[in-house]
Amino acid sequence: QKEVEQNSGPLSVPEGAIASLNCTYSDRGSQSFFWYRQYSGKSPELIMFIYSNGDKEDGRFTAQLNKASQYVSLLIRDSQPSDSATYLCAVKLKGDTGRRALTFGSGTRLQVQP
Amino acid sequence: GAGVSQTPSNKVTEKGKYVELRCDPISGHTALYWYRQSLGQGPEFLIYFQGTGAADDSGLPNDRFFAVRPEGSVSTLKIQRTERGDSAVYLCASSLTPLAGGPGAKNIQYFGAGTRLSVL
Questions:
Q1: Which of A44, A88, A100 lies closest to B48 in CB terms?
Q2: Looking at the partner chain, which of B99, B103, B112 has a beta carbon nearest the beta carbon of A43?
Q3: What is the pLDDT of residues A43-66, one digit of tens each?
Q4: Buried b (16+ CB within 10 A) or exposed e, B76-107
């Protein structure tokens, strides 16, 4: 089992719809969770980070964290074609107490159809 | 600088050659990370620096890989006797402070555009 898992997609949604991206992680007790967006051939850019259970909203983006179920999700409201990209879930795994790096999922490719 | 800068953007080399990849982090960022990203995968951790020292090099795949950060700013990732399997995008990231597991925007990692290494 991978430490951070994402459905590779592609996830295809029509313009204006809500896109829901999910991520599960294996290390119970992990505390820091990040969503990065990566356009083809470009570097990852941070969308949101979340530390506490529940929802965190920033504009059209909402991150949801459920530590008991060990999943984190990203909702994109009013999806736009410009949102088409790969979305990477990254976790600071609790077990890596000495490590200061992130463990990434393989990413979910989102396609927003005009 | 305004962002994390990596050079070169592309590097083509022959199997067995030596390569150096450079990373210039955001000014003032003490933590620097190297990741490697293969096609269709997420970034994979290689090494982390806090200041001048390599605080965690557990992600380096073997002893052909080495990285330095002599003055606590610019870092160089060095790969000896390159192999075709080393072909990937090498990403550098920096953060103001190390990622310690707790809340805080200071430990957010910002990525450079990467160096695409192709070993023929």
A1: A100
A2: B112
A3: 999 999 998 889 999 999 999 999
A4: ebebeebeeebbbbbbbbbbbebbebeeeeeb
